[in-house]
Each structure stands twice: as C-alpha cells, then as structure tokens.
Amino acid sequence: MSVGLDRAQEIAARVGKFVRETVVHYEKDPRLGRHGPSEELVAELRSKARAAGVLTPHILADGQHLSQRETAVVLIASGLSPLGPVAVNTASPDEGNMFLLGAIASPGMKQRFLSPLVDGSSRSAFFMTEPAEDGGAGSDPSMMRTTCRLDGNHWVVNGRKAFITGAAGAKVGIIMAKSDDGACMFLVDLPDPAIRIERVLDTIDSSMPGGHSIVAIDNLRVPADQMLGMKGEGFKYAQIRLSPARLSHCMRWLGGCVRAHEIATAYACKRHAFGKPLIDHEGVGFMLADNLIDLRQAESMIDWCAGVLDTGSLGTVESSMTKVAVSEALMRIADRCVQVMGGTGVSGDTIVEQMFREIRAFRIYDGPSEVHRWSLAKKIKRDFAQANPA
C-alpha cells in the first residue's frame, strides 16, 4: 500500500468510527423529513464532526485534496449511514462543487465561495439540469435553454432549472447558462431574489438536505468577475466536475450497501425458520454470498476508475462504465437485503429500506444507465471506424 493510501486508511478509520458511533444514532431523528435533514440537524452533525476532527476529511488542512483513490477509501466510510456524508461534509452536491472550485476558481473566488464549503458552514447547489416541459437540458446538455447575456459589467441570466439538489438552504450557487459563445458558469451568493424556488419535489430518496427543487431564474444580474473560468468553456468545466462526481456517488453508496449487507447478515444469522437460521437456507445464504461478490466487484471498479482519474484524465469513459456497473450492482445488493429481511426489510425499522430507495434514485442521478451505455456504444463505433478505415 502506498503512503497516500496508508494515510487514507487512517482517515477512513476515524470517519467510519464517527459514523458508526455517533451519526447512526441520528437516523431516527425527527428532524429528518421527505426533503432530507433540517438545517438545524445538519449544523448539529457537522459540529460533532468538527469536534471529532473528521469534518471535510477528503481535503487536508493545507487545502490539498486527497487523490481519487484516497478519496474513495474515505467516502466509502462516510457512506456507512445515509446521514454520514452530510455529517462529515462529503455529500453531493457540495463534494463535487468543492472539487470543481478547487480546480477552476481564482484565489479570490476560493476565499469567498470555497472556504465556507470546506469549513462546513455553507451548503451549495449546482444549477445545470432543466425542466423537461421546457424542452431544456437533461441528459443532453446541448439542449440548455437558460441564457446569459453581457450587460455592462454584469451578466444577465434567465431560465428555469430542475432537480437542483440542495437549492433550498444553499448559500453558494454554481449556475450554468448559454451565451452566444457557448456555455458559461457563474458563482453566486444565495439566496437571491432573482432565483426563486418554485417547489421542492417529493422524490424517492430523502438523504440530501434541501431536497431537489424546480427553480426559476428571472433577470439575475451577476458581476462579470463572478464568471467561473472562461466564457464558452462551461461544458468542459462540467466534465471536470461530473466525472469524479459520478465516482463519488459510487463511493458513498457503496458504504451504504456495506452497512445494509451487515444488517441483513445479522438478521439472517439470528432469525430462525423451519428449524434453522435463515442463512442456512440456500435461498437466503446464496443471496448474501452474491452480495459479497457484488460488493467486491463494485470496490474494484471504483478503485480502477479512481486510478484513471488520478493520472489527470477526464475519465469520462471510465466514469460512465463505473457508474453503470456500480449503480446496478448496488441495486442488486440493496434488493437482496430487503428480500432477506422480508417484512422488516420494507419497514423503516432499519436503514435497509432507505438504502433501497436511495440506490434506485442513484441509477438515474448523474445520468441514467441507458445514457451512459449509449455514450459507450458511440465510442465503440468510433473506435471501430478508426481501426478499420474505409
């Protein structure tokens, strides 16, 4: 094991201990709702994480970001509870936004917008996806309808966004809009009267603070010096964020499935039926055996993709492959855990039921499997044509 991974294992051990010994006890807290934990609960959890020395563990005291392979070890540990990533500040969309700002933002922007995210005092939102009824951008970002135009020393932004995670309660926003020269990104302080939450959607998942909102942007004026990066480079910056963000989702929810498997295993070993423990019935024991196989394969895929990203590659192909493989493996694991536990598995008595819901949503978030497969198929065709010119 490299020195870096030794360091990551030590951090992950502390994070895992904190999640298991502290965060788990909040999983039935009444401040948890359909749209995630309340702001009060988020602040309380982060205060405890700060005191335990595990807040924002993937970013070191000197501002250095752990490598992707190191980050994987830490984020898997943070995901052992649905509340874990929120508590230790490794949750989406903040973790991905911190990564993007660390890579692209100017020193002044980092001080103003990144620092409060790293210290856990602020949450953020990434405004990219748009409503289907508007004909806007979803899996196809080229369909973006939100516009921006330069007016003196300000950009004026208009449009609507959809499924904006954490918009309710966020203090930092990254907004994507299309200019005559291409896509642009802007950093904004939230709340802003020109950015209006039309409604917070009721979705199948419930772990992310603020839920997922439909947002209207009406003549938002953004100072020109708050453009993130260069004009027209927004889609390139989006890939810098999205490839590692897909992988981070895999990391966190792998941790959740590790815990769900632990709970299902304990149930199967203690629960008896027809004269013996459930695990001694092949129908149950084999499901848990298949879980172990899928857990190991998911971990291997994450480590492989993280290694590619650590070379400096955008890793779009690798992250697509990993997102499909891992999300579908984790869905199988969560489904088996529910099945092993029967009626208890579909109740709220354990986190198994929630993990099933969260993983089902993950198969869609950051691109459904079908879109990633379509992208990979295009690459296969392109590679064949290059290898076999007419």
Automatic annotation (TrEMBL):
Keywords: FAD, Flavoprotein, Oxidoreductase. Signal peptide: none annotated. Transmembrane segments: none annotated. Its cofactor is FAD. This is Acyl-CoA dehydrogenase. It comes from the Bacteria. One of its GO terms (molecular function) is flavin adenine dinucleotide binding. GO terms for cellular component: cytoplasm. The keyword Oxidoreductase applies. Residues 232-380 form the Acyl-CoA dehydrogenase/oxidase C-terminal domain. The keyword Cytoplasm does not apply. InterPro entries: Acyl-CoA_dehydrogenase, Acyl-CoA_Oxase/DH_mid-dom, Acyl-CoA_Oxase/DH_mid-dom_sf, AcylCo_DH-like_C, AcylCo_DH/oxidase_C, AcylCoA_DH/ox_N_sf, AcylCoA_DH/oxidase_NM_dom_sf. It comes from Sphingomonas jatrophae.
